[in-house]
Amino acid sequence: MSRIKEFNLPDLGEGLTEGEILSWLVKVGDIVELNQPIVEVETAKAAVEIPAKWAGRVQAIFHPEGTTVEVGTPIIAIDTDPDAGPIETPEAPSGAAGDLPTPSAASLAAVEVAPAEGMVEPGLIGGPAPGGRTAVLVGYGPRTTAAKRRPRKGVVPAQTATAAAAAPAQPAPTQPAATAAPAAPVVPAPAAPAGSNGHTATAGTVLAKPPVRKLAKDLGVDLRTLTGSGPLGSITREDVQRAATAATEPAPATATVTAAASFGADREQRVPVKGVRKLTAENMSRSAFTAPHVTEFLTVDVTRAMKALDRLRKRREWRDVRISPLLLVAKAVLLAVKRHPMINSTWAGDEIVVKEYVNLGIAAATERGLIVPNIKDAGRLSLRELADALTDLVQTAKAGRTSPADMSGGTLTITNVGVFGVDTGTPILPPGESAILAFGAIREMPWVHKGKVRPRQVTTLGLSFDHRIIDGELGSKFLRDVGDFLADPEAALLAWT
Amino acid sequence: MAKGDPGSTTRSRRAAPRSRKGAVGDPELVQLLTPDGERVDSVTGPDGTVYRVDFTDEEYRGLYRDLVLVRKLDAEATALQRQGELGIWASLLGQEAAQVGSGRALRPQDMAFPTYREHGVLYCRGIDPIMPLGLFRGVDQGGWDPNEFKFNMYTIVIGAQTLHATGYAMGVAMDGRTGTDDGEAVIAYFGDGASSQGDVNEAFVWAGVFNAPLVFFCQNNQYAISEPLERQTRIPLYQRAAGFGFPGVRVDGNDVLASYAVTRHALDNARHGQGPSLIEAYTYRMGAHTTSDDPTRYRIASEVEAWQAKDPIARMKAFLEKQKIADADFFAEVDEQAKRESVHLRERVLAMPDPEPTSLFDHVYPHGSPLLDQQREQFSRYLESFEGSAH
């Protein structure tokens, strides 16, 4: 067989099933060269010459001119080594194209007459095509004939079960493979644990769209370390960018240190404005130049408040709660808002929106820069809940996992500049808010207490407010209330609640 | 001849023809080599640009060798399709000069966006000519690295690559990689049929407005499958460029020298930040649109014969002979090389392994995905379910 090669009629044009032999260009006994035209075949699309696939002598021609032959059927046999002597097969060539020898069994079986076609010339667009299909410009659409396939093995479920047992990560073994394939769209998050417990721990189960994965790869972010904020907990582009910014943008304090190393020859460094820096800049400019700010200051003796905090820490039910003076400031603000609701409002052009709920923003310096997450509806929280919310907010921010939702919708903000050791500031309003309280450092200072100069713990509060909404009187009353609470929390609580 | 840059060094002393305005026969056609193999020293294009080439004898012979090899390898691929070894093949027969001329005009840093017929350009980019055969045999996706060879994957969708090229070229400009002698230029290949596509016209708009460093290289082979040029346009295609605000020129696409000169000029303009241009390489598809097509159904024999007389290889051969740049030994040696390489190509195509059925899942995502892992698993088990399965 290696010497005699049979040539099967190929699919000459993208999905054809048959062709008519128009004319043989060679006869049995001819010596043919590689790629020498040997036969002209007309398909539904074109009449084409077929070049010889091998050089050699024509051994046999299986179909006369005018025959329609199915694709895949042998049409010619070529002796590829004609000089090697006689062939051992009994099938001797007869020397005439019309005198047909017996080809291999397959070729005989496949000979058939062209199916009756309609009035339209076969092969023209819209006309009938072989196999009952309709001709289109390119190809003939899907096949309608039944595909020939190897038979299926008898014991499919057993096979699957064995395979599944061997590989525990596979899905439900009771489902036969063939029906498993077109199963409903997989929702990986719930589906994964069904296969195996270990599955969720693999890197592959992180949900993220390919462009997001690419971005993460480019930015060097390990998706497994992120908590997704998208649908089904999938990781979004924003999640990745936030993580990348957190990893690459140093905190303001360290920025100056690292910057020193990267000054160019001109002793200037150009830091691209992007991410949190850019957002902060945009927000601050917008706020500073649209809302007319007024800032007032109040210095308060908070010694009693600090003592109250100490007592609180000693209580059994507060033992494992992290509390700081910020908690009391937050409580003071929330109580004062109840007494002066107009503080918690938004300038909306032709109206003022006063809010019953307080989404209390806490400005936080993080690795990524300044962010202002807020505690939703903080006015409804008990002191304990407020303490937990503050702790949670700070830890989330420090870990760089603050979500956009955490940062939107703030109504009133506290900025705790005291942690940096300064006394106070004139904060700029977050856009859409009407007041922001700066809380300075608590210092031991000489203070007149009960008629004598005593060392007392003192802090300075700074309140900026939008003068379009809040006049000096209201701002002052609000700041005074906050101060009163911090000066004597117990009394204020008794008096106001 | 050094691949990639044939037209620079010393000028040939043998060719000393006259300078002409316009070109023989068609004043709109830039031509440096007539169908009879007569050299034209320089030609002034419609916008006053003077086109000329200065090749060494070695480089002239190199271009001829390219043309012959490209045609022979293409013919082998056509034969392989007829023998059932390729699913389909889009032959470049007749368009060799347009492809080799423009392909050799590319500098190494230039990026090309081909259709599915740019086998000649692919060859000039130094890509193994077997690569597209794997694609049309259905055993791989093309296989070459577009970044390594600066030659994008074949695009089957008509005209889509012009938008890809425009975006890429705008990126080149935004990266600041234009404006110098070693700047990057981009070339987008398409045909006369594609010129009717929305994509191509959108690409013209964007490239024009954003001054993209892009050369639109239209091989006008006169037919969009069966639709003749007169049903694609009422004006010469190159004149459309004016409406989009960049220059257009028509070149004799069967003249490898003119194709080189015009493309090199347009690419250099682009790389220097002068913006896009349109080249209409006026040529003829001597074969079928693809192996699935029968051109005798829609065009007449006399038209084909008329173009046969303008054959790109015949005129180059006549020129080399007349100017005694090459002798019979050279031509025989080139033919021998072409035969050798085509036989080698055939052997390698026939030896191409069928891909593993499950490799279908391998290149969807660079690092896989759980869903694909699951599908691969299911597909493997499906394959295993057949009798006599090797899996």
UniProtKB/TrEMBL annotation, chain A:
Pfam family membership, one: Biotin_lipoyl
Compositionally biased tracts (Low complexity): 155-169, 175-184
Any GO MF annotation of the entry: acetyltransferase activity
Region described as Disordered: 82-102, 145-184
EC nos: 2.3.1.-
Residues annotated as domain Peripheral subunit-binding (PSBD): 207-244
Annotated Lipoyl-binding domain residues: 4-79
Swiss-Prot/TrEMBL cofactor(s): (R)-lipoate
Family matches, as InterPro entries: 2-oxoA_DH_lipoyl-BS, 2-oxoacid_DH_actylTfrase, 2-oxoacid_DH_E2_comp, Biotin_lipoyl, CAT-like_dom_sf, E3-bd_dom_sf, PSBD, Single_hybrid_motif
This protein's UniProt keywords: Acyltransferase, Lipoyl, Transferase
CDD domains (UniProt xref): lipoyl_domain
Gene Ontology annotations for the cellular component aspect, listed alphabetically: cytoplasm
Keyword set includes Transferase: yes
Gene3D superfamilies in the cross-refs: 2.40.50.100, Chloramphenicol acetyltransferase-like domain, E3-binding domain
Highest taxon in the source lineage: Bacteria
Coiled-coil annotated residue ranges, if any: none
Family: Belongs to the 2-oxoacid dehydrogenase family.
Protein name, per record: Dihydrolipoamide acetyltransferase component of pyruvate dehydrogenase complex
Source species taxonomy: Bacteria, Bacillati, Actinomycetota, Actinomycetes, Micromonosporales
TrEMBL record, chain B:
GO molecular function annotation: magnesium ion binding; oxidoreductase activity, acting on the aldehyde or oxo group of donors, disulfide as acceptor
Residue span(s) of domain Dehydrogenase E1 component: 67-343
UniProt feature, compositional bias: Basic residues: 11-21
Superkingdom field: Bacteria
InterPro entries named in the record: Alpha-ketoacid_DH_E1_comp, DH_E1, PdhA/BkdA, THDP-binding
Region (Disordered): 1-26
Biological process per Gene Ontology, one example term: branched-chain amino acid catabolic process
Secretion signal, residue range per the UniProt entry: none
Pfam families in UniProt: E1_dh
Keywords on record: Oxidoreductase, Pyruvate, Thiamine pyrophosphate
Cofactor(s) named in the record: thiamine diphosphate
Stated name of the protein: Pyruvate dehydrogenase (Acetyl-transferring) E1 component subunit alpha
Organism for this UniProt entry: Micromonospora globbae
Source organism phylogeny: Bacteria, Bacillati, Actinomycetota, Actinomycetes, Micromonosporales
